[in-house]
């Protein structure tokens, strides 16, 4: 009887905790109706109701499941305990900033851009942004999927599942021990710095979502911590927990020094880097690099004269030692597959969107192949979803196609096979992918310039590229 009562008691306590969290967010929401607290993303006025609604969906799904589903260690229940405790703590920190008891001057300071209290509020807003994204990723529509969550980088996914199994969260101490089996971590200040970088929600735990973001930011996997050391710990251009507006303010002092730049993890394009820099005309621009690691973007930008002075300093660190990147993944095309393409008067390696260039990029995690130019154009004008299957794009990987060398001697037979088979997208059979619909045709031409980048203003729609080398938009 006690064994039956214990799970029921935990479910009831979880439901109460979810209800308390929703009510706490609703009370906070009232404070952010003041227009003086409006700011560029992340906006607490937007995040609070969205997080509250998602928690309601989680509560509804948990009641409907009635205790069913994966509930092992590090599963949905353990995650929610950590998440709700952290949410309550962060909400109380926000409340303390909003209503300092009997201190009118402190209250006035909160509404002044650049003040200490406003900076604290901006950091908490970033944490709330990460917490909302984490909950959305692990409980889409309120339903738990942490046990099936797919990390964007295949080596990182294999590492997590191989060492952590179906768990979606574990303590920092345990995670650090596991990480050391593959990437040794120094104790002391280095370990603390790594924790502050990975643990975006500042909960004292590490979720599979946070690890996914970290491994996307500091790719490639073989040199993961070396990349982190050189780009985050030692690089003067790295800034953490800064918003779009704060980057603008920081670079104001460097407007007379074109080539000054800083970079930060984007809070709207998670897993990607936002780079703010001073243009040759003194305007301050921001870009997100596509299809390459950050160090490669910085090196390319240095050659083009865009990224020369990190945070206005004259010394620009040498990142060339990081250029020993992972080799391109080799996609092997069998003789049977080639016959199918020959019968259609096509080739496997030809990009099926532009039909002009060869495929050289694999979308992660779905695995569809296309050329880098079409992918960049698609992401710029459409969305962060695959043009074939509409799955979320969490990353890209350079690939090279290696096909069977032979003649289309059996092309006619293959054509007969095609006519007798069901109509399927000629997507990426090598990877076992069948697209749900053909992608729209894009009017694209071969990319020009060495530095392929996309500029954004994080609270406005993206603008079309304005130049052959770099697309620019002023703040």
List keywords for this structure.
5-stranded mixed sheet, calcium, 475 residues, globular, alpha+beta, 4-stranded mixed sheet
Quick recap of the structure?
With 475 residues, this protein is of the alpha+beta class. The chain has helices at 2-31, 44-65, 76-98, 104-110, 116-138, 154-164, 172-180, 189-198, 208-217, 224-233, 244-251, 294-304, 335-343, 372-381, 411-420, and strands at 169-171, 205-207, 260-265, 273-278, 284-289, 309-310, 329-333, 361-364, 369-370, 395-403, 453-455.
Helices, by number, come to 15
Specify the overall morphology.
Answer: globular
Helix/sheet category = alpha+beta
Sheet-strand content, in percent, reads: 5-15%
State the share of residues found in helices, binned by percent: 40-55%
Query: Unreliable segments (pLDDT under 50, ≥5 consecutive)?
Result: 1-5, 407-438, 440-475
Largest sheet properties: 5 strands, mixed
Distance between the termini: 64 Å
Descriptive report:
By secondary structure, this protein is an alpha+beta fold. The chain is 43% helix and 10% strand. The chain has 15 helices and eleven strands. A five-stranded mixed β-sheet has the order 6-3-4-5-11, covered by helices on one side. It has a four-stranded mixed β-sheet with strand order 7-10-8-9. A hairpin with a 5-residue loop joins strand 4 and strand 5 (284-289). It is globular, with a radius of gyration of 25 Å. This is E3 ubiquitin-protein ligase CBL. Residues 421-446 are annotated as: Disordered. InterPro entries: Adaptor_Cbl, Adaptor_Cbl_EF_hand-like, Adaptor_Cbl_N_dom_sf, Adaptor_Cbl_N_hlx, Adaptor_Cbl_SH2-like, Cbl_PTB, EF-hand-dom_pair, SH2_dom_sf. Residues 7-321 form the Cbl-PTB domain.
């Amino acid at each position: 009887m006690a064994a039956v009562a214990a799970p029921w008691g935990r479910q009831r306590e979880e439901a109460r905790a979810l209800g308390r969290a929703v009510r706490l967010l609703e009370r906070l929401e009232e404070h952010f109706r003041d227009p003086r607290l409006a700011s560029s993303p992340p906006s607490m006025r937007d995040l609070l109701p969205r997080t509250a609604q998602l928690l309601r969906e989680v509560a509804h799904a948990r009641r409907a499941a009635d205790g069913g589903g994966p509930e092992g260690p590090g599963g949905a229940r353990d995650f929610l305990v950590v998440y709700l405790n952290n949410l309550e703590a962060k909400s109380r920190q926000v409340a303390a900033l909003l209503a300092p008891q009997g201190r009118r001057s402190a209250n006035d300071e909160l509404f002044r851009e650049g003040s200490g209290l406003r900076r604290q509020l901006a950091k908490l807003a970033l944490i709330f942004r990460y917490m909302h994204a984490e909950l959305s990723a692990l409980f889409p529509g309120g339903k738990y999927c942490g046990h099936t969550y797919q990390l964007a980088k295949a080596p990182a996914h294999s590492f997590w599942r191989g060492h952590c199994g179906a768990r979606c969260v574990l303590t920092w101490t345990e995670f650090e021990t596991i990480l050391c089996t593959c990437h040794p971590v120094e104790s002391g200040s280095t370990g603390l710095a790594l924790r502050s970088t990975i643990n975006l929600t500042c909960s004292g735990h590490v979720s599979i979502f946070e690890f996914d973001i970290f491994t996307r930011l500091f790719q490639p996997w073989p040199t993961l911590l070396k990349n982190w050391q050189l780009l985050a710990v030692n690089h003067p251009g790295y800034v953490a927990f800064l918003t779009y507006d704060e980057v603008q303010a920081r670079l104001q002092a460097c407007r007379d020094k074109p080539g000054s730049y800083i970079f930060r993890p984007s809070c709207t394009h998670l897993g990607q880097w936002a780079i703010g820099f001073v243009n040759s005309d003194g305007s301050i621009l921001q870009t997100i690099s596509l299809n390459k690691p950050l160090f490669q973007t910085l090196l390319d930008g240095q050659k083009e004269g865009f990224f020369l002075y990190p945070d206005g300093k004259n010394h620009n660190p040498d990142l060339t030692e990081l250029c020993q990147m992972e080799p391109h993944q080799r996609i092997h095309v069998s003789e049977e597959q080639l016959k199918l393409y020959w019968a259609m008067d096509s080739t496997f390696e030809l990009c099926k969107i532009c039909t002009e260039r060869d495929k050289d990029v694999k979308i992660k995690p779905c695995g569809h192949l296309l050329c880098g130019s079409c992918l960049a154009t698609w992401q710029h004008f459409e969305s962060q979803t695959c043009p074939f299957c509409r799955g979320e794009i969490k990353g890209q990987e350079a690939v090279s196609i290696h096909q069977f060398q032979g003649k289309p001697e059996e092309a006619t037979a293959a054509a007969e096979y095609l006519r007798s088979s069901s109509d399927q997208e000629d997507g990426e059979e090598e990877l076992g992918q069948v697209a749900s619909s053909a992608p729209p045709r894009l009017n694209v031409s071969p990319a020009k310039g060495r530095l392929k980048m996309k500029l954004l203003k994080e609270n406005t729609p993206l603008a079309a590229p304005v130049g052959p080398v770099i697309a620019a938009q002023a703040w």
